[in-house]
Amino acid sequence: MPTPQQRRFQRQHQTVKPAPGARSVAGVPLPLQALAYLAVFAAAVAVYLPTLRHGFLINWDDPTYVVNNPLIRGWSRENLIEIFTKPYFSNFLPLHLVSYMVDYSLWGLNPFGYHLQSVILNGVNAALALLVTRRLFGDFTLAFLAALLYAVHPSHVEAVAWISIRKDLLSTTFLLLTVYFYLRATGSRSLDRGSYAASVAAFTLGLLSKVSIVALPLFLLLLDLLQTAGRRRLSWKAALANKIPYGLVGLMLVRLNMLAQAKGQTYAHDPANYLMVKGHAVWNYLALLTGLPPGRPIYDAPQFAPDLLPAVANLAGIVVLPAALWVAHRRGWRVMSLGAGWVFVLLLPAIFFPLVTYMADRYLYAPSLGFCWLLGAGIVWMGRRSGGIAVRAGVVAFLTAIPFAGFVYRTMEYCPVWAGSESLWSYALARSEDYRIRNNLAQARLDEKRWADAERLYREGSRFENYISHQGLAAVYYNTNRYAEAEREIERAVEIARKGGLASGKLADLEYARGQIYWVQSQPQKAIDAWEAALRANPRDERAPLTTVWVGVAESRLGNEEASQEAFRQAIEKYRRTGQPVTDAYFAIGTVELNRNNFLKAAEWYRLAYRESPHEAKVAFFLGRALARGGSPAEAMQLFKRIAEGEFSILSDSQFTMPDVYVQMGVAAQTLGHNQEAIGYWEEALRRAPDHPERDAILASIAALRRAAGH
């Protein structure tokens, strides 16, 4: 008869027993297995299909990682070297950027393609969750239920719907592959070296996607301690030794990212307060795992009163998962041991590092699988205690449907919030006092030209010292012709940014904006100084070619023709080197010549711009103006007619309106001697814009032509 110690050992080293009537994976027909994998993949994809209609989040990382990122715009040797050797946006995550290179190659800047890859990766991760769970516990029913619930878990919305959080999806893909290959490597009496090497390689790729999976070797060590029959038994020394490659890679990449990271957060300065904040976060994470509380894009860090009971309760959050692991281990509950261990290990970086956001839904993307193991095991256990096969199947189906339906509802309810900046920050504003929400919603209002709302929100955000609120106020004042106030705010933004050690890319943005404010106030030398400061701050900035163009324009204004031409030459080289259309450079040079009345030279530069961007209305319009005044009115008229017929798209930055097109058509017609036609075009311009800025001149021209015709 076994002793109590022997019985406990047997419980700890057994797998979850399949429910009566359920077959192990070896007994499940391959078509049924394939159907199960397809089902979890389809569920994970279907629930996020609405995100394919979402755009970029224009004021939350998407511009930095995708829209304005020159490194993803081509598979050049220079771009790849930059990605794999230098941090970007305070992180060294090269595979994250490579995934955007793939998207850009296929879709350009169409957000559909970027969302599509995220949705597909989510489906792949759900299928991998089934593969790993089946390998881990040996019960296909448990694996299928856990993976199905994981596929639709509402804590995943942020990671899937927000393009910039692709790193969580990618790192989880490699994390699951790491565990799968490790289980294969140690699943027999001898170590499978090929699978072990594949596991280490997958772990390395995962770290190159997001370094937060660095604690995974601790879970692999836990697997060694909770070995099942038939698995290779390892001594403590051997178990630790085979984690050394994981540890070395992890330490190296953590070090690289720590060097690139910004300073820690204010809540981390007091150790006791820090532990209470993180313990509070753990309790919130556990609540979010249930799917009951709605998600949030930003959570306010809690403020604690000096009371003993709340302090103890929050500090308990730090130890609740290790305690659950220990109790489950002592009781021989392997699924609970591994589930609690999985959640705890994968949350360790979020718990013990002072991240910018004290907690976030995305930090649960990988850890939530451990909770789904517990749900799946509970459902299997309840099914095992039921009656006949039909009853068991009904119980399992019913018990699965409850959390599945709840998760799907929460996920589909929350997804539309991430459709765009307006919906996201309006939702967040009602749930948080964080200054970043005010700034981001203000940016959305700014884009809609709702100046008063934007100013109010930025002013509210500026109560907490940050450069973004002042940069936003500068933009509001710039767009409402309050240039002195704009200059004051941009100076304050630069001061805060430099004091806080802001990343070079953001400092370049501020200096560029400062240059624009100086320029509009007719201070070309100050503008040049600011733009050159932007170029020094970040020579690889996506806007560097355009900044160089502006330097050339300003030098021309000062009469420094040699410096102006040199700046234009450098700008053209930068456009070509970064793979960006050189249209802006050609257009800027053409405009300089047009303002000097050098119409033939202006037409030459505008024609080069037109070849680069043959569908851009602004280029066609200004080329037409130069041609009309440079002796080619017939060619100009053809361009103007094509614009009027809608062949070109008139964008917000086109610098002209459709009435302006009819004004220029009138000028071209008059030059060609078609006076009645010219009168008709000018009258159409005034019909479309009765208060046109050139109204008096247009009326005078019409009157002159009519007098000449004897009317």
From TrEMBL:
<keyword id="KW-0472">Membrane</keyword>
<feature type="repeat" description="TPR">
    <location>
        <begin position="508"/>
        <end position="541"/>
    </location>
</feature>
<protein>
    <submittedName>
        <fullName>Tetratricopeptide repeat protein</fullName>
    </submittedName>
</protein>
<feature type="transmembrane region" description="Helical">
    <location>
        <begin position="195"/>
        <end position="223"/>
    </location>
</feature>
<feature type="transmembrane region" description="Helical">
    <location>
        <begin position="136"/>
        <end position="153"/>
    </location>
</feature>
<feature type="transmembrane region" description="Helical">
    <location>
        <begin position="308"/>
        <end position="328"/>
    </location>
</feature>
<feature type="region of interest" description="Disordered">
    <location>
        <begin position="1"/>
        <end position="22"/>
    </location>
</feature>
<dbReference type="Pfam" id="PF13181">
    <property type="entry name" value="TPR_8"/>
</dbReference>
<feature type="transmembrane region" description="Helical">
    <location>
        <begin position="335"/>
        <end position="357"/>
    </location>
</feature>
<keyword id="KW-0812">Transmembrane</keyword>
<feature type="compositionally biased region" description="Polar residues">
    <location>
        <begin position="1"/>
        <end position="15"/>
    </location>
</feature>
<dbReference type="InterPro" id="IPR011990">
    <property type="entry name" value="TPR-like_helical_dom_sf"/>
</dbReference>
<dbReference type="InterPro" id="IPR019734">
    <property type="entry name" value="TPR_rpt"/>
</dbReference>
<feature type="transmembrane region" description="Helical">
    <location>
        <begin position="159"/>
        <end position="183"/>
    </location>
</feature>
<keyword id="KW-0802">TPR repeat</keyword>
<feature type="transmembrane region" description="Helical">
    <location>
        <begin position="363"/>
        <end position="382"/>
    </location>
</feature>
<keyword id="KW-0677">Repeat</keyword>
<dbReference type="Pfam" id="PF13432">
    <property type="entry name" value="TPR_16"/>
</dbReference>
<feature type="transmembrane region" description="Helical">
    <location>
        <begin position="30"/>
        <end position="49"/>
    </location>
</feature>
<dbReference type="Pfam" id="PF13374">
    <property type="entry name" value="TPR_10"/>
</dbReference>
<feature type="repeat" description="TPR">
    <location>
        <begin position="583"/>
        <end position="616"/>
    </location>
</feature>
<keyword id="KW-1133">Transmembrane helix</keyword>
<feature type="transmembrane region" description="Helical">
    <location>
        <begin position="389"/>
        <end position="409"/>
    </location>
</feature>
<feature type="repeat" description="TPR">
    <location>
        <begin position="659"/>
        <end position="692"/>
    </location>
</feature>
<dbReference type="InterPro" id="IPR052346">
    <property type="entry name" value="O-mannosyl-transferase_TMTC"/>
</dbReference>
